[in-house]
Amino acid sequence: MNGHIPIIRQGYLQDLPRPLYGHIDSQPNMIIPGPHQHAWAQLSYAIQGHLQVWTPQARFIALSQRAVWIPAGVRHRVYESPHTQIRSLYIDGPALGLDWSDCRVLVISPLLQELIRRFSAIPIEYDTDGPDGRLARVLADQIAVSPEAGLILPWPSDKRLLPLCRQLHRAPDTAPTLADYGRQIGLSEKTLTRLFLQQTGLGFRLWRQRARLVHALPLLEQGERITDVALACGYDSLSSFIAAFREHTGQTPREFSLRSLQANPRTD
Question: How many other C-beta atoms are found inside a 10 Å radius of the C-beta of residue 97?
Protein backbone atom coordinates (compact mmCIF):
# COMPACT_ATOMS: atom_id res chain seq x y z
CA MET A 1 0.00 0.00 0.00
CA ASN A 2 1.09 3.56 -0.60
CA GLY A 3 1.61 6.10 2.17
CA HIS A 4 -0.61 6.97 5.12
CA ILE A 5 -3.67 8.27 3.28
CA PRO A 6 -5.44 7.24 0.08
CA ILE A 7 -3.81 8.86 -2.95
CA ILE A 8 -6.39 10.79 -4.99
CA ARG A 9 -5.56 12.57 -8.23
CA GLN A 10 -8.15 14.60 -10.15
CA GLY A 11 -10.91 13.08 -8.01
CA TYR A 12 -9.90 9.46 -8.58
CA LEU A 13 -8.61 7.10 -5.94
CA GLN A 14 -5.21 5.78 -7.06
CA ASP A 15 -4.34 3.30 -4.28
CA LEU A 16 -6.17 1.39 -1.58
CA PRO A 17 -4.94 2.05 1.96
CA ARG A 18 -6.16 -1.39 3.07
CA PRO A 19 -7.45 -4.55 1.32
CA LEU A 20 -11.00 -3.46 2.22
CA TYR A 21 -11.73 0.25 2.05
CA GLY A 22 -14.96 2.20 2.35
CA HIS A 23 -15.04 4.99 4.92
CA ILE A 24 -18.31 6.93 5.11
CA ASP A 25 -16.57 10.22 4.26
CA SER A 26 -14.24 8.78 1.66
CA GLN A 27 -13.86 8.82 -2.10
CA PRO A 28 -15.62 5.46 -2.67
CA ASN A 29 -18.96 6.99 -1.62
CA MET A 30 -18.83 9.56 -4.40
CA ILE A 31 -20.23 8.81 -7.84
CA ILE A 32 -17.53 9.21 -10.51
CA PRO A 33 -19.09 10.70 -13.63
CA GLY A 34 -18.53 8.97 -16.93
CA PRO A 35 -17.29 5.47 -17.80
CA HIS A 36 -14.31 4.34 -15.74
CA GLN A 37 -12.64 1.29 -14.24
CA HIS A 38 -10.67 0.41 -11.13
CA ALA A 39 -7.67 -1.72 -10.33
CA TRP A 40 -9.74 -3.31 -7.55
CA ALA A 41 -13.23 -4.72 -7.12
CA GLN A 42 -16.08 -2.49 -6.04
CA LEU A 43 -19.31 -3.21 -4.15
CA SER A 44 -21.85 -0.41 -4.58
CA TYR A 45 -24.70 -0.72 -2.10
CA ALA A 46 -28.03 1.14 -2.24
CA ILE A 47 -29.11 2.12 1.27
CA GLN A 48 -32.23 3.69 -0.21
CA GLY A 49 -33.42 4.42 -3.71
CA HIS A 50 -31.82 2.43 -6.48
CA LEU A 51 -28.67 2.48 -8.55
CA GLN A 52 -27.73 1.15 -11.94
CA VAL A 53 -24.34 -0.05 -13.09
CA TRP A 54 -23.86 -0.13 -16.84
CA THR A 55 -21.16 -2.20 -18.49
CA PRO A 56 -20.76 -3.01 -22.19
CA GLN A 57 -22.34 -6.41 -21.47
CA ALA A 58 -25.35 -5.57 -19.27
CA ARG A 59 -27.27 -3.17 -17.05
CA PHE A 60 -27.22 -4.20 -13.37
CA ILE A 61 -29.98 -2.68 -11.22
CA ALA A 62 -29.85 -2.71 -7.42
CA LEU A 63 -32.90 -1.64 -5.45
CA SER A 64 -32.66 -0.72 -1.77
CA GLN A 65 -30.79 -3.35 0.25
CA ARG A 66 -29.11 -4.67 -2.87
CA ALA A 67 -25.57 -4.15 -4.12
CA VAL A 68 -23.71 -4.51 -7.39
CA TRP A 69 -20.37 -6.32 -7.45
CA ILE A 70 -18.01 -4.86 -10.07
CA PRO A 71 -14.79 -6.83 -10.66
CA ALA A 72 -11.42 -5.14 -11.08
CA GLY A 73 -10.76 -3.85 -14.57
CA VAL A 74 -14.39 -3.83 -15.72
CA ARG A 75 -15.29 -0.60 -17.47
CA HIS A 76 -18.56 0.70 -16.07
CA ARG A 77 -20.72 3.69 -15.34
CA VAL A 78 -22.87 4.22 -12.26
CA TYR A 79 -26.27 5.90 -12.40
CA GLU A 80 -28.29 6.77 -9.31
CA SER A 81 -31.72 8.25 -8.77
CA PRO A 82 -31.80 11.77 -7.26
CA HIS A 83 -32.44 10.60 -3.70
CA THR A 84 -30.39 7.42 -3.74
CA GLN A 85 -27.99 6.93 -0.85
CA ILE A 86 -25.09 4.57 -1.43
CA ARG A 87 -22.19 3.02 0.37
CA SER A 88 -19.32 1.69 -1.68
CA LEU A 89 -16.58 -0.70 -0.71
CA TYR A 90 -13.36 -1.00 -2.68
CA ILE A 91 -11.86 -4.46 -2.33
CA ASP A 92 -8.58 -6.19 -3.06
CA GLY A 93 -10.38 -9.35 -4.15
CA PRO A 94 -7.47 -11.82 -4.21
CA ALA A 95 -6.31 -10.67 -0.75
CA LEU A 96 -9.75 -11.38 0.72
CA GLY A 97 -10.71 -14.45 -1.30
CA LEU A 98 -13.31 -12.61 -3.38
CA ASP A 99 -12.37 -13.41 -6.96
CA TRP A 100 -15.66 -13.18 -8.90
CA SER A 101 -14.82 -12.21 -12.45
CA ASP A 102 -18.32 -11.14 -13.49
CA CYS A 103 -20.67 -8.38 -12.33
CA ARG A 104 -23.59 -9.50 -10.20
CA VAL A 105 -26.37 -8.13 -7.97
CA LEU A 106 -26.19 -9.30 -4.36
CA VAL A 107 -28.70 -9.29 -1.49
CA ILE A 108 -27.55 -7.24 1.50
CA SER A 109 -28.72 -9.11 4.59
CA PRO A 110 -29.45 -7.26 7.86
CA LEU A 111 -26.17 -8.62 9.25
CA LEU A 112 -24.17 -7.47 6.23
CA GLN A 113 -25.92 -4.09 6.33
CA GLU A 114 -24.83 -3.61 9.94
CA LEU A 115 -21.29 -4.77 9.17
CA ILE A 116 -21.02 -2.22 6.35
CA ARG A 117 -22.42 0.52 8.59
CA ARG A 118 -19.95 -0.33 11.34
CA PHE A 119 -17.02 -0.67 8.95
CA SER A 120 -17.68 2.73 7.40
CA ALA A 121 -16.95 4.39 10.76
CA ILE A 122 -13.61 2.76 11.62
CA PRO A 123 -10.30 4.53 10.88
CA ILE A 124 -9.20 4.41 7.26
CA GLU A 125 -5.85 2.89 8.21
CA TYR A 126 -7.23 0.28 10.58
CA ASP A 127 -5.00 -2.34 12.15
CA THR A 128 -5.33 -5.36 9.86
CA ASP A 129 -4.28 -7.68 12.73
CA GLY A 130 -6.60 -6.08 15.30
CA PRO A 131 -10.38 -6.08 15.87
CA ASP A 132 -11.02 -3.81 12.88
CA GLY A 133 -9.04 -6.12 10.62
CA ARG A 134 -11.07 -9.08 11.87
CA LEU A 135 -14.25 -7.10 11.19
CA ALA A 136 -13.08 -6.55 7.61
CA ARG A 137 -12.53 -10.28 7.14
CA VAL A 138 -15.97 -11.12 8.55
CA LEU A 139 -17.50 -8.54 6.21
CA ALA A 140 -15.70 -10.12 3.26
CA ASP A 141 -16.91 -13.57 4.34
CA GLN A 142 -20.51 -12.32 4.43
CA ILE A 143 -20.18 -10.80 0.96
CA ALA A 144 -18.87 -14.14 -0.29
CA VAL A 145 -22.03 -16.00 0.81
CA SER A 146 -24.55 -13.32 -0.24
CA PRO A 147 -27.16 -14.68 -2.65
CA GLU A 148 -27.74 -13.10 -6.03
CA ALA A 149 -31.00 -11.27 -6.67
CA GLY A 150 -31.83 -8.27 -8.78
CA LEU A 151 -32.66 -6.96 -12.20
CA ILE A 152 -30.05 -7.68 -14.85
CA LEU A 153 -30.58 -6.53 -18.42
CA PRO A 154 -28.03 -8.20 -20.72
CA TRP A 155 -26.98 -5.83 -23.49
CA PRO A 156 -26.40 -7.08 -27.06
CA SER A 157 -23.36 -6.12 -29.12
CA ASP A 158 -24.91 -6.88 -32.52
CA LYS A 159 -25.57 -3.61 -34.34
CA ARG A 160 -28.81 -4.97 -35.80
CA LEU A 161 -30.33 -5.19 -32.31
CA LEU A 162 -28.93 -2.04 -30.71
CA PRO A 163 -31.44 0.53 -32.09
CA LEU A 164 -34.39 -1.54 -30.89
CA CYS A 165 -32.83 -2.17 -27.49
CA ARG A 166 -32.02 1.49 -26.99
CA GLN A 167 -35.60 2.48 -27.79
CA LEU A 168 -37.04 -0.21 -25.53
CA HIS A 169 -34.78 0.97 -22.73
CA ARG A 170 -35.53 4.67 -23.25
CA ALA A 171 -39.21 4.68 -24.26
CA PRO A 172 -40.78 1.22 -24.20
CA ASP A 173 -44.26 2.59 -24.93
CA THR A 174 -43.16 3.73 -28.42
CA ALA A 175 -40.88 0.83 -29.35
CA PRO A 176 -42.00 -1.36 -32.28
CA THR A 177 -42.76 -5.04 -31.97
CA LEU A 178 -40.10 -7.51 -33.00
CA ALA A 179 -42.02 -8.28 -36.20
CA ASP A 180 -42.38 -4.59 -37.11
CA TYR A 181 -38.71 -3.92 -36.37
CA GLY A 182 -37.74 -6.92 -38.49
CA ARG A 183 -39.63 -5.48 -41.45
CA GLN A 184 -37.82 -2.16 -40.97
CA ILE A 185 -34.37 -3.74 -41.20
CA GLY A 186 -35.17 -6.61 -43.56
CA LEU A 187 -34.93 -9.55 -41.13
CA SER A 188 -37.58 -12.08 -40.22
CA GLU A 189 -39.05 -12.21 -36.74
CA LYS A 190 -37.69 -15.76 -36.41
CA THR A 191 -34.14 -14.60 -37.21
CA LEU A 192 -34.37 -11.71 -34.73
CA THR A 193 -35.75 -14.01 -32.05
CA ARG A 194 -32.82 -16.38 -32.49
CA LEU A 195 -30.35 -13.47 -32.54
CA PHE A 196 -31.80 -12.00 -29.35
CA LEU A 197 -31.37 -15.28 -27.53
CA GLN A 198 -27.79 -15.70 -28.81
CA GLN A 199 -26.81 -12.17 -27.82
CA THR A 200 -28.50 -11.79 -24.44
CA GLY A 201 -29.34 -15.28 -23.22
CA LEU A 202 -32.96 -14.13 -22.88
CA GLY A 203 -36.00 -14.45 -25.08
CA PHE A 204 -37.23 -11.17 -26.51
CA ARG A 205 -40.38 -11.03 -24.36
CA LEU A 206 -38.43 -11.46 -21.11
CA TRP A 207 -35.81 -8.92 -22.20
CA ARG A 208 -38.54 -6.42 -23.06
CA GLN A 209 -40.23 -7.03 -19.72
CA ARG A 210 -37.04 -6.27 -17.83
CA ALA A 211 -36.41 -3.14 -19.90
CA ARG A 212 -39.92 -1.94 -19.07
CA LEU A 213 -39.39 -2.46 -15.35
CA VAL A 214 -36.08 -0.62 -15.38
CA HIS A 215 -37.84 2.27 -17.11
CA ALA A 216 -40.55 2.23 -14.42
CA LEU A 217 -38.26 2.66 -11.40
CA PRO A 218 -37.51 6.41 -11.61
CA LEU A 219 -41.14 7.17 -12.50
CA LEU A 220 -42.35 5.33 -9.40
CA GLU A 221 -39.76 7.07 -7.24
CA GLN A 222 -41.15 10.40 -8.43
CA GLY A 223 -44.61 9.41 -7.21
CA GLU A 224 -46.24 9.04 -10.64
CA ARG A 225 -49.60 7.25 -10.71
CA ILE A 226 -49.19 3.49 -11.08
CA THR A 227 -51.56 3.40 -14.04
CA ASP A 228 -49.60 6.16 -15.81
CA VAL A 229 -46.33 4.34 -15.19
CA ALA A 230 -47.75 1.11 -16.61
CA LEU A 231 -48.84 2.93 -19.76
CA ALA A 232 -45.49 4.72 -20.08
CA CYS A 233 -43.80 1.32 -19.95
CA GLY A 234 -45.90 -0.11 -22.74
CA TYR A 235 -48.34 -2.16 -20.64
CA ASP A 236 -52.00 -2.28 -21.68
CA SER A 237 -52.94 -4.11 -18.49
CA LEU A 238 -52.29 -2.69 -15.02
CA SER A 239 -52.50 -6.17 -13.48
CA SER A 240 -49.80 -7.47 -15.87
CA PHE A 241 -47.50 -4.61 -14.88
CA ILE A 242 -48.04 -5.23 -11.17
CA ALA A 243 -47.47 -8.97 -11.54
CA ALA A 244 -44.26 -8.50 -13.55
CA PHE A 245 -42.92 -5.90 -11.13
CA ARG A 246 -43.59 -8.12 -8.12
CA GLU A 247 -42.01 -11.13 -9.82
CA HIS A 248 -38.74 -9.30 -10.53
CA THR A 249 -38.43 -7.10 -7.43
CA GLY A 250 -40.31 -8.91 -4.67
CA GLN A 251 -42.60 -5.93 -4.09
CA THR A 252 -45.50 -4.23 -5.81
CA PRO A 253 -45.07 -0.93 -7.68
CA ARG A 254 -47.10 0.81 -4.96
CA GLU A 255 -44.90 -0.58 -2.19
CA PHE A 256 -41.77 0.56 -4.02
CA SER A 257 -43.27 4.01 -4.66
CA LEU A 258 -44.43 4.48 -1.06
CA ARG A 259 -41.04 3.49 0.36
CA SER A 260 -39.32 5.94 -1.97
CA LEU A 261 -41.67 8.78 -1.05
CA GLN A 262 -41.45 8.04 2.69
CA ALA A 263 -37.67 8.19 2.50
CA ASN A 264 -37.80 11.38 0.42
CA PRO A 265 -41.13 13.19 0.93
CA ARG A 266 -42.09 15.82 -1.61
CA THR A 267 -41.71 19.43 -0.49
CA ASP A 268 -43.87 21.05 -3.20
Answer: 11
